[in-house]
Amino acid sequence: MRFLTWLMLCSFIGAKSVTSILAVVLWILGFPFLAEIMEINAYDYTWFYYGTLVLGALAVVFIAPKVLRIASKISPERQRHMAFSYVLINRNLETVDTFKVLTSTAFMQRIGLRQMWGITSREDVLEIAQSLSQAGSHTPFADEIYHKIIKSSLKHEEYDEQKKILIEKGYTERELSQIKTLAAWDYGRTAYVLRFSAHAGYIKQKEAWTYMKAAADNAAREYDSWRQFFAAYHLGRAIAFGEVTEFDTTLNPSIFDKRPFSKIDFK
To answer: Structure pTM?
Structure first.
């Protein structure tokens, strides 16, 4: 019996499909009934019982999120729309293959949206979504500074430092010089704010996808690849937000093939 328990524990750890996950859950739920039918002695039953508790606790912590993520997986096309906000989504320990937010409650999201974005209503969300998806939020300001830097060698501490970091990570002067706009900073925040706004209950999911698609399509017209897009995103952030990003997986093009968005077509 202990062998069977360890076998199911191993199955739990390796569970990746909905079927295998449900099998483990059914095993846990049917544990007491099986013990009674098999007339297990008191010693083995005690071991059996505590093994069940351990599996049950692990199920709550690990299996439930797996089931929710698998069940709510979105189409490849929508994963592409989501991937443009990979930086922010990844920092919040979420993934681009689902629309549901699994790491926070709607209440906590409303607090975060109010503090970080000034969002307290549906109208606020739609106004910001329109601005971000059409590169009308920080892009005009960032691009104005950016073009002055390029044309007149204007010194900008945060931009210069961010560019230096990108080159150290593997970008070249040539490819960075081919960036025409820093609109990626706006496009790259669109899916993030819409996803969490929908989770907070401010807008419907269908509305969110409309703006996310618009941002993704606009980004695909402005940039040639994920590599170029994320470089522009970080440069745009350095100018518009006044902060340098030193640690982020999208800074390093050599490891792009290990990131979830690398398996998604840019255009």
So the answer is: 0.74
